[in-house]
Structures are given as C-alpha cells and as structure tokens.
Design brief:
The structure holds two protein chains of two kinds. By secondary structure, chain A is mainly α. Chain A contains four helices and no strands. Classes of the chains: A mainly alpha, B mainly alpha.
C-alpha cells in the first residue's frame, strides 16, 4: 500500500494550480468569497488525505514493531 | 498603571515563571537544553511546530495583510498546508538520521550527510544571517503591541528591552523545555482570542460573515480575489511553492524535528496541523472586518489593523488580554529563534574552530551567547526602519536555498557531492543578495515575458540557479573523481 502516498500530490494541484480556475469573489459559499472557500475546502481535504495516507502507510506499522 | 498593562505584565511574568519551572528535575546538558532529550511526544512537537508558526508575523501581519491587500493574504494558509504535506515524507528520515547520529542542529545534519565541515559552516552562516531579521521582527511586533495595548503607558523601546530580557533569561535557564511549556499557554490563549475576534467583529459591525464580505465586495470590488497584476495568480502560485519548500529550512524549525520521540509523532502531526492552520482564517476575518471600519492605514501601518479595531471596539481590560496574547506570540518564537542561533554559533562555528572543545564547554558557550544575540537583535530593532519586512522575505529566500542539497541527501544514492552542495547554496544566496540589493524583478530581467508571468516570485530564480549549479558542479566533481580513479586504476593495473 505504499502507492497510497501518491495521494499527497492532490493538495498541490488543489492549492497551487486550482486557484487559476477559481479566482473570483462570487458566488459566496457559506458566507466566504469563492476563492477563500475553495482554499478552506482544500485544507480540510488535505487533512483527510493525510489521515488516509497515515492509516494505510506500512511505515507506521513498521515503526510500531 | 492602567488595567491593560496589568494583563500584559501578567503574560510576561507567566512566560518567565513557566520557563523557569520547566527545567525542574532535568540536568541541563546540551541534549536536554536544545533538543529536549529527544523525548517529546506528539503534543509537544505539535505545539513547538505550531508555536513557531503562529508568530507576531501571523497575528499582526496576517490580519494586516488581509486588511491592506485582501486575497493575497490567502497564500499564508496555502503554504503552511503544503509544507505539512511535505513534512510527512521529508521529516521522518531527517529525524531518524539525526537521532541515530546524535545531532543537535540543522548544520550537523549537512556536516554528517556530506562529510564536510565547510558545508556545515556555510549552512550555519546562512541560518544565522536569516534568523536575525526574524528575531528582529518578533521584537518589533512586541513593541507595537505593548505600546498600543498599554495606551502609550510604556514606550515600544522599553517594551522591546523588557521582552528581550525575559526571553534571554528563560532560554538560558530551561532551553527548549521552557519554549514547549510557554507554547501551551500561548496556543490556548491565541486559539480562544483569535476565534472570538474573528467571529465577533464581523457580527458586531456587519451582522455576520456573509454580509461582511458582501459589504466589502460592494465597496472594493474584487478585493477578495487575486488581481490581474502585481500580487496576481502567478505571484500567488510561485510564492506558495517557494515558501512551502522553505518552511522547514529555518534552523529553529528544523531543530524542533529532533525533539520528537518517534517518527510516527511527526507523521501524525501532518494530519492535524493543516486543520490548526485554519485559525489563520479567523485572523483574516479580523483584517477584513477592519478594512471598512478603520480605513486609512497604509504602508507598514497596516500591521496595526487588529489592534486599532480592537481598541475601537472593546474596553481597555480586554485590549489588555489581546495584548497579552500578542506578547506571547512574540516571546515563544523569539525564544526558539534565539536558541537555534546560539546553538549554531557554539556548536557549528566555535566547535569547528576549536576541535578540542567538549560538550560541556560548547553548552556553556551556547548559553552565554543567548544574551549577546538578544542584545544584537535589540540593536537592530531600535535602529531599523521599514526595511524589516524586506529583510524577512530575504531571510525566507535565504533559507530556501538549503532545500535542494537537503532533499537530495535523503535519496539512497545522492547525486549531489559536497562541492556541488556548497557551490549551489553559495550561488543561490548570491542571487538572493544581488536581487535584494539591486531590486531587479522578473519584469526587468525578462521584459519579453507575458505580464502575468512577470509577477513570479524572484526567489524562484535563485532556487533555479542554485539547483543548476549544484547539479553542474556535482557532475563535474564526480567525473573528475572517476577520471582520477580510472587513471589510478590503470596505474595499479600496469604495476601488476
């Protein structure tokens, strides 16, 4: 399951390339300007992605032993 | 003595007291002092890393940036998040190597990996030169906070002297243990204060977040998205990338990796730290709320936005509480920076000059250097004008130059040689200095490029120069070495 680590590429796409496509103040999402809402969503997703990687990464089982 | 001042004084005393208590029951040798005996669990490593991230720069600078520039401030949220993603992969091998080899500082890592004390000296010098403006910035922020929050009862000069004395004292006595325990107090306070301000101020002045952003969009259309020029999308993307790579290259941040008990501690933090970053969102809300409420601040004064709006809104006692929090955001990172700089000087410069120095002598010297460095920083703080932010950005560009040599050294087969690493770092640093002193931009260097691409952060150029020189020199030294050994081999061959 080491290949699960490739998921870590996604936050870079979302936060560095993503803004090129969502750089606009409207529509507001939950009161936030669109670009800011996009970034906040990706931060939440990043945490989730890192949790998934942590869960499946064999390195963490190796360290425990 | 006014009531706000009381709270600020209490915070300073708390920091001092906690710092002194933290050393109890520990023999303060170099290992305990600088890397906490390598015994910190997830919570302390988390707080140390977070403690260095939430500095006066984010507290005052983050809100001020949102106030003065709007959307470009979002970059602070992005680069931290991406740095934590990188940390999951990059930090555990660094931690393992450092623990196995008993390393204390960032330079030790380079010295051991490349078997070169010259490289260690170069890395130490880059680190120290980058750290001084960072420390100056903390002290300057401290001065601003105390002067405003105390309603002028204490001048910023006096506040800077007192703050520097407190940090120096507790760093000398309890080292990284003091920083870790003070972080607990600081992070608890900043969490409560910032979330409260970020929710209350938009509600109080606009009736909520949505109405606030609508009001801003009406008054300043496009303020909450990136503009087509200047701090544009290209500026945003390149700055996020550059600062995400440089994030863990700061000597004090690098050093906090060594305090971890296990690699899993570091990986686990990579899950939680992005969420913790979201506190910054509330800092931005404060800045955005201030945009239409306390207009008119410009230039370096935008950093005052949070306190100007707070002073307009709240009673003095509460301004004091906010001021106390701000003081802690300056003291904790200040202590980490001070300790990292002292360790670098004693362990990586003095020890190279005097090979006979033992750990006891190096440890004593490191502690003696703390007040000296604090004094130097105070000197710069009181003398320096507006160039400090420019110096900080220069500091970031400087430490990022360590990234290529570091990341290549983690590979099983390192393509970089010690000569390549030294040449690359020097070339990158030289580029940063030349760009910094001459003020050239992408626009003046590449006038034929499309306007959007010209907004790219110039630090990227320095990094590219660094990488190209590193690879070129490494290949050259490798070829030369192979040439020598094949000639040597032939000579041996003919002897037989």
């Amino acid at each position: 399951m080491r290949s699960i680590r490739w998921l870590a590429v996604l936050p870079f796409i979302g936060l560095i390339i993503g803004p090129f496509f969502v750089n606009r103040p409207t529509p507001f999402v939950l009161g936030l300007p669109f670009l800011l809402a996009w970034i906040v969503a990706w931060i939440l997703l990043t945490s989730l992605i890192m949790a998934v990687i942590y869960w499946f990464d064999p390195a963490n089982q190796e360290d425990a032993n | 003595m006014n009531v706000a001042l009381l709270f600020i004084a209490a915070a300073a005393l708390l920091a001092l007291g906690v710092g002194f208590l933290a050393r109890r029951g520990k023999d303060m040798d170099l290992e305990q002092w600088t890397v906490g005996g390598r015994g910190f669990g997830a919570l302390f490593v988390f707080l140390l890393m977070a403690g260095e991230i939430y500095t006066t720069f984010t507290f005052l600078g983050g809100s001020g940036f949102a106030y003065g520039k709007g959307a470009p401030a979002y970059y602070i949220l992005c680069y931290g998040t991406l740095a934590y993603v990188i940390s999951y992969f990059m930090l555990p091998p660094i931690w393992r190597y450092a623990t196995e080899n008993g390393l204390y500082s960032q330079s030790d890592f380079f010295v051991r990996k490349y078997a070169s004390s010259t490289l260690g000296v170069v890395v130490s010098l880059v680190g120290i030169v980058a750290l001084v403006p960072y420390l100056v910035l903390q002290l300057k922020g401290l001065g601003i906070i105390v002067e405003i929050a105390a309603y002028g009862a204490i001048s910023s000069t006096l506040a800077i002297w007192i703050g520097a004395a407190i940090v120096a004292a507790y760093v000398m006595v309890s080292g990284v243990h003091g920083s870790a325990w003070t972080s607990v107090a600081k992070d608890a306070m900043i969490l409560v204060i910032v979330v409260f301000l970020g929710l209350y101020l938009p509600y109080r002045y606009y009736g909520g977040l949505g109405p606030m952003f609508e009001a801003i969009e009406q008054a300043k259309p496009g303020f909450t998205a990136l503009s087509p020029h200047g701090n544009s999308l290209w500026w945003f993307a390149s700055t996020v990338l550059l600062t995400a790579l440089g994030f863990y290259m700061w000597p004090h941040t690098f050093g906090s990796i060594y305090t971890a008990k296990a690699a899993r501690v570091i990986r686990k933090n990579a899950i939680v730290l992005p969420l913790y970053q979201l506190i910054l969102l509330f800092v931005f809300f404060v800045g955005f709320a201030a945009t239409l409420q306390v207009p008119g601040l410009s230039g370096p004064d935008i950093d005052l936005a949070l306190f100007k709006l707070s002073a307009k809104t709240f009673d003095p006692w509460f301004v004091g509480v906010i001021g106390a929090t701000g003081v802690l955001t300056a003291l904790v990172p200040g202590s980490m920076i001070l300790m990292a700089a002292a360790t670098l000087l004693a362990n990586n410069l003095y020890r190279v000059a005097d090979a006979s120095a033992d750990d006891v002598r190096v440890s004593r010297l490191a502690k003696l250097l703390v007040p000296v460095l604090a004094l130097i920083a105070v000197g710069f703080t009181l003398r320096g004008g507006q160039t400090i932010v420019a110096l900080l950005l220069m500091g970031y560009s400087l430490v990022t130059q360590l990234f290529p040599a570091l990341v290549l050294s983690l590979a099983r087969h390192n393509v970089a040689t010690r000569e390549g690493a030294v040449a690359g770092i020097l070339a990158g640093v030289a580029t940063v200095v030349v760009i910094g002193l001459t003020g050239v931009s992408m626009k003046s260097l590449f006038p034929w490029l499309p306007a959007a691409v010209q907004d790219i952060n110039v630090g990227i150029i320095a990094l590219a120069v660094n990488f190209a020189v590193l690879i070129g020199v490494s290949l050259a030294t490798r070829l030369a070495a192979e040439g020598a050994s094949s000639i040597f081999g032939q000579a041996r061959h003919t002897q037989h």
